[in-house]
Amino acid sequence: MDCLFCSIIKGDIPSAKVYEDETVYAFKDINPMAPVHVLIIPKTHISSMNDVTPENSAVIAHIYEVAAKLAKELGIAENGFRVVSNCGADAGQTVFHLHFHLLGGKKLKVEMC
Ligand code: 5GP
Ligand code: ZN
Hints:
Layout: H1 4-10, E1 17-20, E2 24-28, E3 36-42, H2 58-73, E4 81-84, E5 100-104
Antiparallel strand pairs: 1-2, 2-3, 3-5, 4-5
Bound molecules: guanosine-5'-monophosphate and zinc ion (ZN).
Residues 4, 15, 27-31, 39, 86, 92-95 line the site of guanosine-5'-monophosphate.
């Protein structure tokens, strides 16, 4: 299967790694929308939120733990930050490997839709 983020996890495509453990990988977004813009992804290929099931959902809770840890380490926990996952065409998902954007370091626009 040809997946950009699976290739990044394997190291076939370079990335600016921020964090890694057995189940999660985090790296800087190539086109940052904020001073801190990190993508946090499961190492297992899950295409989008549409494919989250009782069998694979534990990694999502872990991703939120990692997001909280990275927010502290990257100095954005106190002022605030946002975690976003786009699912499907209407949300503007462009890479179909589930990912969570960790954004902060500036006053973010409050736009829910
Ligand atoms: P989406 O639009 O699917 O929610 O987010 C995909 C994100 O992946 C975008 O913010 C985009 O900048 C980022 N991205 C796309 N290709 C690459 C890449 O090759 N390397 C990195 N680090 N980020 C990428
Ligand atoms: Zn993948």
